[in-house]
Design a protein that fits this description.
7 strands; 17% strand; 7-stranded mixed beta sheet
């Protein structure tokens, strides 16, 4: 299967599909942080290249629910939010038979622009990671993911600052990068479950 992993610089999802024998390529404006097949450039330039599946991780800076707090104090954020939501809408409409798009919980205004609610919301603890981070999936011609290793009990037995690591990261120039990484257990579930479709 030819798999495009859009808006991914880490190689985590790409490498999960490669490990299962798929022809997987990541694409991002940034160079890849993990050696492997990667297109550095605008994903919209390669959408029509005969992919069977796309897993997309578009930027969430302006569309995430948390971003709503800045809309009224920083008026330029409205346009940024609209541009971000339109990008997501365009990725969902890509000429690829099967599409999965991942983003955090989206703000209400971005959801209105997008015009679609997520198909599913998953948590890292569904896939063996003792952390909380609601991740929404918009799916086209793909089934919802099923948990592979439920560690909810262990996760909620931890203190809040241990299970909410992603949310509590200290300000840092690379904070957005660290928060945007896909958990390896989630990537493996995507490759196992959607790669078998």
């Amino acid at each position: 299967m030819r798999v495009l992993v859009a808006c991914e610089f880490s190689g985590i999802v790409r490498d999960a599909f490669l490990a299962r024998g798929h022809d997987a390529v990541s694409c991002d404006l940034l160079p890849t942080e993990s050696p492997g097949p990667h297109i550095q450039g605008d994903v919209f330039g390669v959408l029509g290249d005969g992919w069977d599946l796309m897993v997309a991780h578009p930027p969430c800076t302006y569309v995430a629910n948390l971003a709503n707090r800045w809309l009224y104090s920083q008026p330029t954020r409205w346009q940024d939010m609209i541009v971000g939501a339109v990008m997501i809408r365009d990725l969902l409409a890509a000429p690829i038979p099967r599409v999965a798009l991942e983003n955090p919980v989206m703000g209400k205004w971005a959801r209105l622009v997008l015009g679609a609610d997520p198909t599913q919301t998953v948590q890292p603890w569904w896939f063996g990671h003792t952390e909380t981070k609601a991740t929404c999936l918009w799916l086209r011609n793909l089934p919802p993911l099923t948990p592979t290793r439920d560690v909810r009990a262990e996760t909620y037995a931890l203190p809040y600052n241990r299970r909410a690591i992603s949310h509590l990261q200290v300000p840092h120039p690379d904070r957005w990068k660290r928060r945007s990484l896909t958990y390896p257990g989630l990537a493996a579930a995507m490759a196992d479950q959607w790669g078998a479709e």
